[in-house]
Amino acid sequence: MSKFAEVAIALPVDRVFHYAIPEELQADMAVGKRVFVPFGPRALVGYVVGLTGTADVKDVKEVRSIIDKEPILTEEMLKLARWMGRTYFCSWGEAIEAIIPAGIKKGKVELGTRLKKMAVKAAEFPPSTPHVLNEEQSRALKSIVECIDRKEYGTFLLYGITASGKTEVYLQAIEHVLKAGRQAIVLVPEISLTPQTVERFVSRFGHKVAVLHSGLTPAKRFLEWKKIRDGKAVIAVGARSAIFSPMKNIGVIIVDEEHETSYKQDDVPRYHARDVAEERARLNSCPLILGSATPSLESYYKAKKGDYKLIKLTKRIDERLLPKVKIVDMRMELATRKRLAIFSKVLLDALDRTLKNGKQAMIFLNRRGFSTFLNCKKCGFVMKCKRCDTALVYHFEERKLLCHYCNYKMEPPDICPNCKSSYVRYFGLGTEKVESEISHAFPHSHIARMDSDTTAKSGSHDKILGDFRTGDTNLLVGTQMIAKGHDFPAVTLVGVVSADVSLNVPDFRASERTFNLLTQVGGRAGRGEDGGEVIVQTYAPGHYSILAAAKHDYEKFYEEEIVARKELLYPPFINLVKLTVRARNDDLAARTAQRLAQAIAAETKTMAVTGPAPAPIARMRGYFRYNILVKGKDRAEMCELLKKVLGKFGKPAHVLIAVDVDPIAM
Ligand SMILES: [Zn+2]
Ligand SMILES: [Zn+2]
Fold first, then answer.
1. Which of 7, 300, 511, 525 could make an S-S bridge to 532, C-beta 3.0–4.6 Å?
2. Which ligand has the nearest atom to the CA of 388?
3. Ligand sitting nearest the alpha carbon of 539
4. How far apart are CA 349 and CA 340, in angstroms?
């Protein structure tokens, strides 16, 4: 008989704790249940991860009580959580806490009680039946189905251009899985968790689908979770955290739009849902399908190497043509019109034409908080760090240009080092400015603006889009918010004010983001029968990510980008871990970061340490922040080393250190 329980606790302590099981609790004790245990002066909720006959300490304390009648975690989920702890630099308990729904975290809710009364809304969507697949789709489905039947793990990268029918392949793979009595998880980015997406799944599978999105209250989320656990729902469709759905016999996992950055969580544990999905597929011996029209460099690289099976869908279902993309060289605007303008003549003319034809246009302005890079409006030259190949950021307080990777600093030049012109300017444009310029040029148009300011009030988001849909407004100006998912058939023109902003974000993924963004924005034009036109303004018309996006040529983009990544040693060729040191005192933060970087470097020969450098947003909520980047070959080995270094690092009080494995932003 096991006399002791091994308990994981959601604290940043990398170990399990032993507790004696009192006589009266012996019969009820089981792995996967929650227990109340004494911890210092407090009683905490812990998770039973194992039972053992011997304890690792002498005067072992007793479990106070058992919370659950039935285990809330399966062995598989416990294994998954442990893997997360090792991979993402958190404790087993913290990982467990992340995978169970908030509704049961408090240790109060007893499974199977009062929540039963809350009815789930019945399916409101008309039923649909499987479509006939074209040859490409059939072939894709066949190899996935074979993998399902063999009960084997395997990752498929389903790379299909927009409207090539990826979803129908997902649906039929799921159908096959259900027939075999197994279950399915489908991840979609939060932003695409719209009624249209949900409809595809609910129409086909009705009440068998549980939908998990961030809008659910903890109680509702818990109800959906329970539906899945009890086997009443066999398909989970949801955002990031749906990967933790309590299924017991998973037959397929699907991650749609796998390149989306929203799959990465930015709190502890800082996991990437795509990677967790891969581990879960492995634990369940089932296929993982990653779908995208613009796969992440990491995934496409693995597919090319043969780690993933690459399936291509190259034909559009409705044979609709991709929109024509025109690149406008903004350097020419300065040369011919002798002034710095926001809008090119080409874009103004196209807008005029569109409005006269009674059609609609979208004007897209990519803005990311700190777009203070320096560029020459005459030749397009951008000041970059020679070592890191990312744009230098202008810091107003210091009046210096600074590299956010390696901390290289320089005085901003007054004249362009490339062409000697004096048209060197800081980049920075707001949606408001764009809106006012445009209303000046087109006084009779009805303009709506959509950004974080205009959508702050609840309901305003839907109102802006609703007015545009009905045609009450005919020009929509906005940030990345308007880039995704919306289908407006009357939009025939999409204008991108400046592709340079995303291209010069100080991030090694800037080119990839730009390519994805332009592809996505371009996809907004010509959803209707009239076709569409996309106009992209830029000071870097020769940049491969812009050229490839204009030609809808992912392969071309990949070939160029992968070379750059290899040369400068960025993922997928190495793994990155970012350590952020922050404190309210700038000097203290800087000194601690410096000391930490040295401590890490002293401990390793195989990993490269860069920085510390101020974070791109150097000061946030009163904290001064410094980043250290560690590059290495093996993620687990890197975590191991960092745990060791941080374990003996004398961290001053009032300094916080965050560790982010595979960071997606600096
Ligand atoms: Zn120049
Ligand atoms: Zn640098």
1. 525
2. 2
3. 1
4. 17
Which DSSP state fits 68?
Answer: -
The token pair at 27 is: 């019969």
Which pTM does this prediction carry?
A: 0.87
Taking a C-beta distance cutoff of 8 angstroms, is the pair 32, 73 a contact? Answer: yes
Distance 408 CA to ligand 1 centre (A): 22
Task: Count CB neighbours of 118 within 10 A.
Answer: 11
**Domains of the chain with CATH codes:** 4-110 (3.40.1440.60), 132-313 (3.40.50.300), 324-370+429-564 (3.40.50.300), 372-426 (no CATH), 575-661 (3.30.70.600)
Rounded distance from Cα 253 to ligand 1 centre (Å): 50
Q: Is the pLDDT of residue 406 over 90?
A: no
**Which residue type does 45 have?**
V
110 secondary structure, DSSP code: P
Distance CA 72, CA 413 (A): 61
| Angle (CA) 335 338 341, round 5° | 95
pLDDT of residue 109: 47
Look at residues 544, 440, 435, 453 and name the one whose alpha carbon lies nearest to residue 497: 435
Ligand 2: distance of its center to the CA of 429 in Å? 25
> Hey, what are 463's tokens?
């109102």
Note the pLDDT tens digit of each residue in 425-436: 877 667 777 888
Q: Which secondary-structure segment (H or E) carries 511?
A: helix 510-522
Tell how far the Cα of 391 is from the centroid of ligand 1, in angstroms.
15
CA distance 223 to 394: 49
Q: Which ligand is nearest to the CA of 405?
A: 2
Q: What is the whole-number distance in angstroms between the Cα of residue 336 and the centre of ligand 1?
A: 16
506 alpha carbon, closest ligand: 2
Say whether pLDDT at 528 is over 90: no
Q: Ligand 1 mean position to 19 CA, how many Å?
A: 69
Those residues with Cβ within 8 angstroms of residue 598's Cβ, 6 or more apart along the chain or in another chain: none
pLDDT single digits (tens) 496-526: 998 888 888 888 999 999 999 898 887 777 6
Q: Distance from the CA of 564 to the center of ligand 2, in angstroms?
A: 15
Note the ligand closest to the C-alpha atom of 374.
1
Calculate how far, in angstroms, residue 568's C-alpha sits from the geometric centre of ligand 2. Answer: 11
| CA nearest neighbour of 313 among 159, 173, 163 | 159
More confident position, 193 or 284: 284
Crossing angle of helices 297-305 and 554-567, in 10° steps, is 90
Nearest-ligand number for the alpha carbon of 387: 2
